Amino acid sequence: MTVTRAPAESLSVLDRPNSYIGKTVPRPNLDRLLQGRGQYVSDLELPRMAHVVFLRSPHAHAKIVAIDASAARRMSGVISIVTGRELETVITPWVGVLSHLKGLKSAPQHAIAVDRVCWQGEAVAAIVATSRAAAEDAMEHIAVDYEELAAVTDMRTALDPATPVIHASLGDNLAFERTLDAGDVDHALSESEVVEAEFVFGRHTGVTLEPRAVVADWNGAEARLTVYQGTQAPHMVQNIAALHLGLREAQVRVVCKDVGGSFGIKVHIYADEMATYALSKLLRRPVKFVADRIESFNTDIHARDHRCRGRIGVRPDGTITAFEIEDLTGIGPYSMYPRTSAIEANQVVNLVGGPYVTPNYRARARVVFQNKNVMCQYRAVGHPIACSVTEGLVDLAAAKIGMDPVEIRRRNLITDDAYPCASPSGMKFEQLSHHASLAKLLQMMDYDALRAEQAALRTRNIHRGIGIASFIEVTNPSAAFYGVGGAKISSQDGVAVRLDTQGSVICQTSITEQGQGSESLTAQIVGSVLGVSMDRVRVTLGDTDNTPYGGGTWASRGAGIGGEAALQAAKALRQNILDVAAAILQSTPAGLDIVDNRIVNADDGASRIELNELARIVYFRPDTLPPGIQPELMATRHFVPRQYPFAFTNGVQASWLEVDTETGFVTLLKHWVVEDCGTIINPQLVDEQIRGGVVQGLGAALFEKCIYDERGQLTNANMADYLVPMSGEMPDIDIGHVVSPTLESELGAKGAGEAGTAGAAAAVANAVNDALRPFGATITEIPLTPQVILTALGRI
Amino acid sequence: MKAAAFAYARATSVVNALELLAVHGDKAKVLSGGQSLMPAMNLRLLSPEILVDIGGLAELRGIAMRGDVLVVGALTRHVDLLRSPEIALHAPLLRDAVSHVAHPAIRNRGTIGGSLAHADPASELPACVMALDATIVARGPTGERRIAATEFFKGIYETALSPDELLVAIEAPVTGQGSTFFFQEYARRHGDYAVVGLAARAVVAAGRFSDLRLGFFAVGDRPLLAAAAGKLINASVNPELLAEAATALTNELDPQEDQQATAAMRRHLATVLLRRCVAALLARPELATGVAK
Q1: CATH number of the domain enclosing B34
Q2: What pLDDT, on a 0 to 100 scale, did the predictor assign at position B290?
């Protein structure tokens, strides 16, 4: 790895002997998961637990004229059948807007549709029964009389006067619009070669291995609701559930143990989950909802689905003079709650052109309603759109002036010594490393040799392409993301650490674990800072009763924010331990250290007392301590970034692939990523985050798309027709790092969870166009299906 | 995604299975490997009143040579085809095809009889048995009958079997020396249903085809034995002749449009497969790309 900042003069708290930081250590939860002892909500059984199944609308837009559930109610195993009208007496509707997204509007959304359904898949009635199968049997006997309404499905015509308005009270179908004009775009373009293209992105979704799952358990005796849910943000769920059920937050406990994948899908509040909380309160018993795969496709948030017209100005010497975009996206009938569905378009505006120096940038983004499933934040929100548009335009500009794609980037990327600086859209960059990253990438892929190989193969009618994509990534968000807009979504996290009676450490953190390694990185940091071996650190996550308050794990924030809180808490506990040790040993705290689970002399390392002995004295023989000493073997610290709204990271990806120009099929041969997430806590976890993210980006590039027909019907809501990327089609993914730690925290870690997804599709699209250059074909649409490629080649 | 309630009977013999089918008629479904049936039931696309499980009928399992006929029992699983020395020797086309059928977990359960009786137009084995000129053996209340593979497939999920019949075996003639095979399919991901596929058997002598059977799949409502192959038999194949055969092929095809491909794309891919197949079987790589579209 390349380190951009010289190490500090003295050793930091992380450079201690036996530090786990920067080391690949096994995740502490691996054995538990591999031995089938994970605690997934899908597996949870409670006494008297009922199962809910939702009857969902077959229409994209319809009035509910009548619901007849009389036959279904009489069926064996049925406990209750509840309509939206009945449930609204238990839970109030919500509106997904944030005040800092000026002009964003949406309509009240109910847990179960009342009078009208607005997308195919919206819940119309809840069937609560003793088993899922019994509920599904009963569901077939509910008769709903619908009056079909005209469906708004094409985002391009959603704002036309002739198009029906989905929510009359809103006046039109425009949910949000943002414009930006920085520098002098018109002047810049007037003196440049201008290249223009429309970039089209398919609608896709997250496809978690474990579907959304919730068990809600209303305990009337305690007047308290316990929600077991696979979520990324337990405290947010607590707040929202309490708010809409008319409870205090203290009356809601959210427990989230193991989660089978999230990717941003599980950071939102879904209507069917709200309905499940309400049903438990209504029926006074535990109720379980686990989405099946069809429901997942129809109701898990979708993402992307943008059409973005982009222009770039370039001079003959390669100087990029301006970017201009006009982005359009359709978000379904409601802005999602509580994070809203305007964030992705907003991010596109924020991020286009971000890696480059040009000050001239104009953008307009419009977000429109339509009668399809709701859209919202999914891994790398907005980044793949912004990166594909930016990098696609840069490649088109390079082709226009006959310059190598690497050379044009070299001439325009922000130089590594220019920081701190800001982008034309106002994004503040603390320290990025575009040039160091690009240099490392070229070395890893042996760029010149690859170009020679490409040329040689072309003479044999083999068409391979190289695609490069630089990117920036938003991580470690401060309150600027949601808090300032009025959402009760915490941007701070807290960690409590406690030394137990035998010298082990119990650590409670407000970040959550969905497979990315939150538990491991927390234990690594705490163990390293305290001087305790990792097997003595036990981490508890995902329980609003038993962890400090905090945001959770999303937006690549767990390591950077939760990790820093862990570091500070461990530092505080370490100081407390050394204070006690000094009293016991008649030494000074500064003269002592903790190494390998024991107190040692700071100077010669000689062992003085085992931690378990110290703990024994503190907990059981405090009478032997000197007077005036009150040991505090527990410490809690919180952290939130304040100086920068986001800790931007950067990186660059490259794709090497082959296009069969007769069949249109693409074979991915190799993929490289160099990224800079600052301090790396666990290299393997970081690399696998990058790889997993790349694979999701490759899915977007080649395979994944929610295909709706013109009536708003999702036509491929199953795993046979919705094509997730699978290992057989994935290339080897080589990963390199440049390390520019953020100075805003002692840990120096930025996020790494979304970098892979941000740039993978852009690299692939550029590589396909590179391969097709001899044919004069340019494609700016993903997924790059054989049909799309053959059409562009004029073969069909 | 829970199946509607159904009755279940585990057949103790072929005779017993036929008795059950006779009683329940089209209200029954035969459960073999279950790799298509169970998902369809869980999606409630199918709700049979009773499942007749033939999984325990050892008499339907196994691969054997009977004279110059290769006999494959209906319950032979895909994984058995993949590993069988007899298949590798006498009908390697089946082995090559099966490696494209879904994934190991599915190949461990799925059976050849189940696949043929299911008659999905995009699946591999129906086209293979047509290319192999195989015979389907069905047993019903009145005894056994033999149906030529070319007569067996009637449409999407439709075959010549009647509800009271059971597919018991596949018989394929062994053609001996000079036979060569070609199998290729274009699928979005490995293991997916083919966008277009081709299973071929040829007899090549002195650089010419003395026989050529081209079994295309995913090009219509059933696998298609291409008549266009006739143009290439006993002829000196050159790019012009191949182009002529390709044109004949596109006229012969009636592909459907779906999310993966338009009809035009399927026709186009079928001609690419034809050229690549002929080039491979004749060991003349220049033919693969040498034809003007």
Answers
A1: 3.30.43.10
A2: 52
Is residue B169 domain-shared with residue B212, that is, in the same domain? no
pLDDT digits (tens, 9 = 90+) for A4-48: 655 555 557 777 777 999 999 988 899 999 999 999 999 999 999
On whether both A247 and A102 belong to a single domain, the answer is: yes
**Domain's final residue, options B173, B193, B214:** B173
Give the residue from A42, A296, A663, A698 with the most B CB atoms within 10 Å of its CB, the best one to mutate: A663
Q: Tell me, yes or no, whether B132 and B203 share the same domain.
A: no
* Chain B CB contacts of A795 below 8 Å: 268, 293
Does A594 lie in the same domain as A688? no
pLDDT at A56 over 50: yes
Domain count, chain B: 3
pLDDT digit string (tens) for A283-312? 999 999 999 999 999 999 999 999 999 999
Residue ranges of alpha helices (H) inside A267-328 are: 271-283, 293-299
Note whether B234 and B260 are same-domain residues: yes
pLDDT tens readout for residues A249-267: 999 999 999 999 999 999 9
The amino acid sitting at A644 is Y
| Partner B, chain A 275-334, Cβ-Cβ below 8 Å | 292-294
**Cross-strand partners of A599:** A594, A609
CB contact under 8 A, B186 and A663: yes
Report the C-alpha gap between A255 and A230 in whole angstroms.
8
> Which token pair is A566?
């862990």
Q: Tell me: do A669 and A725 sit in the same domain.
A: yes
A588 touches chain B (CB under 8 A): no
Q: Chain B contact for A3, CB < 8 A?
A: no
Are residues A85 and A34 part of one domain? no
Closest to A423 measured CA to CA, from A473, A324, A344, A356: A356
- The domain that holds A721 is classified in CATH as 3.30.365.10
- Provide residues of B within 8 Å CB-CB of chain A: 1-5, 43-44, 186, 188-193, 195, 259-262, 264-265, 268-269, 272, 289, 293
Domain of A270 in residue numbering reads as 41-149+211-259+265-299
Query: Residue A619's CB: how many other CB atoms inside 10 A?
Result: 14
Instruction: Copy the structure tokens of residue A620.
Output: 């059981």
What gap in Å lies between CA A524 and CA A232, rounded to an integer?
A: 21
A249: buried, middle or exposed (CB in 10 Å: 19+, 13-18, 0-12)?
Answer: middle
Q: Which domain holds residue B46?
A: 7-53
Q: Which residues in B lie closer than 8 A to residue A133 (C-beta atoms)? A: 2-3, 5
Residues A706 and A628 grouped into a single domain: no
Give the per-residue pLDDT at B1.
83
Is residue B2 included in any domain, yes or no?
no
A639, A654, A675 - which closes a domain:
A639
User: What sign for the dihedral angle of Cα B274, B276, B277, B281?
Assistant: positive
A5–B contact, CB cutoff 8 A? no
Domain count for chain A: 3
Residues B125 and B209 in one domain: no
In single-letter form, the type of residue at position A126 comes to: A
Strand partners, B185: B197
Query: Do residue B150 and residue B197 come from a single domain?
Result: no
Q: Which of B2, B186, B261 sits opposite A136 (nearest CB)?
A: B2
Residues B189, A133: C-beta atoms closer than 8 Å: no
User: Which of B2, B190, B268 is opposite residue A728, by nearest beta carbon?
Assistant: B190
Q: B190 and A726 in contact by Cβ < 8 A?
A: yes
Interface check A794 vs B, CB under 8 A: no
Give me the percent of chain A exceeding a pLDDT of 90.
96
